[in-house]
Amino acid sequence: MKKTVLFIITKSETGGAQKFVSEQIQALSSTGKWQCLLATNKKGWLTETVQPFVNESDLLVNEKLERLYSFYYLLVLVKFILRVNPDLIIANSANAGVYGRIAGLLTHTKVIYVSHGWSSIYNGGKLKSFFNFSERILSYISSSILCISETDRLKAIEIIKIPASKLQVIPNSILPPKVEHLNYKADVVTVCRLSSPKRVDLLIQAMFHLPEYTLDIIGDGPLFLELQSLATTNQSTNIRFVGEKPGFADFNQYKVFCLISDSEGMPMSAIEAMSCGLPLILSDVGGCNELIFNNGALVRNSLTDITQAIKNTLQNHAYLSSASKQLFDSKFNLNITLKDYESFYLKLLSS
Questions:
Q1: What is the Cα–Cα distance from 92 to 21, expressed in whole angstroms?
Q2: How confident is the model at residue 183 (pLDDT cuts 50, 70, 90)?
Q3: 201 and 192 in contact (C-beta within 8 Å)?
Q4: Does the record bear Transferase in its keywords (predicted)?
Q5: Residue 125: Cβ-neighbour burial (10 angstroms; 0-12, 13-18, 19+)
Q6: pLDDT tens for residues 64-79?
Q7: What is the pLDDT of residue 107?
Q8: Could you tell me the CA-to-CA distances from 129 to 92, 151, 199 in Å, in that order?
């Protein structure tokens, strides 16, 4: 008999956590041993992506999920869980993590919370202590917490004070794409939301010193116009703002992937780029150090470091590209790591 798993995620828009959920649903469904269900805020990129694998009756869409304190949504979710009777709930993102774990407690359903980088640590601001305390309390009603990097596991223990016995690490993994290298659109690509904590401003300034190379910026956000203005003040012709591309997957049209940020968990976009054989240039934050092994560069968020890394990486592109693809196949290929996820889920269900 198939095991039933309900994925809960706050937003259906494109993003790293959504990519994780989408890939999990596709991979688990393809084994024939799992039936996947989904609860999210509204129809969007994620619901469209998993439509072939999730029946309409197994989909809960309600915008109240976007509110952190909605007793109404909690009742809707509990009612849905009681109807579909999942063996396991896998909650992703902050709001979904709260609702999923409380609903699991009320319905006696085991719940895994997936931490896609601890937002309570990285983005908590003045309320960081309160959010860390909340995460610690919620850990006690979690069956387990899945960390996407060893760095996040250590921070959960040392900073949030979550018991180590509650934590499991499986690095982010995706299904490998069918890669066909085309004519390159640009030398460097970055894919991210144009907002804090991303530091696209530093990447743009680094490109001022590298007029021989080109950069495409994929993404939108509140800093779009400000960053566009920054690029035009230098009259740069080597920087192009492409805008948002939901479900962007054309990494094979670029030579190098670069993500400069003040905080990260384990960026899914970097793993997607790696799967296409792109060398990586990443800020030395969060779990990014687990994505670099002779396949690119970790940098401090300084113009000197970023500029030099771009130059060195492009000059050694062939070697670093091969190393990037090898690293992906050995550690981040979901066709290989799926057995680790299944083993984790089944062990939890049998405990």
A1: 8
A2: confident
A3: no
A4: yes
A5: exposed
A6: 999 988 999 999 999 9
A7: 98
A8: 21, 19, 25
In the chain, the amino acid numbered 349 is: L
Q: How far is CA 278 from CA 37, 167, 173, 175, in A?
A: 33, 31, 16, 16
Return the higher-pLDDT residue of 198 and 125: 198
DSSP 217: E
Alpha helices in the chain (DSSP H): 16-30, 45-49, 71-84, 94-107, 119-122, 128-139, 150-155, 200-208, 224-233, 268-275, 303-315, 317-331, 334-350
Contact 173, 22 (CB under 8 A): no
d(C-alpha 115, C-alpha 16), whole Å = 11
Asked if pLDDT for residue 309 goes beyond 80, the answer is: yes
Report the side by side order of strands in the sheet with 167-169: 59-61, 34-40, 3-9, 88-92, 110-115, 144-147, 167-169
The answer to whether residues 4 and 38 touch, using CB atoms and an 8 Å cutoff, is no
Question: Which residues have C-beta within 8 Å of that of residue 154, sequence separation ≥ 6?
Answer: none
Helix axes 200-208, 224-233, angle to 10 degrees: 10
User: Rounded to whole angstroms, what are the CA distances from 132 to 93, 122, 270?
Assistant: 14, 10, 27
pLDDT tens column, 136-170: 999 999 999 999 999 999 999 999 999 999 999 99
Distance of CA 327 to the CA centre of its chain: 18
The tokens of 296 are what?
A: 């690119």
Say which DSSP state 127 is in: G
Task: Look at the alpha carbons of 179, 181, 184, 188 in this order and tell me if their dihedral is positive or negative.
Answer: positive
Point out which residues pair with 282 in neighbouring strands: 259, 298
The single residue listed with the structure tokens 């979710």 is: 77
Q: Which residues pair with 146 in a beta bridge?
A: 114, 168
- What domains are defined for the chain? 3-174+334-350 (3.40.50.2000), 186-331 (3.40.50.2000)
User: Residue holding tokens 């109807």?
Assistant: 83
Write down the pTM of the prediction: 0.90
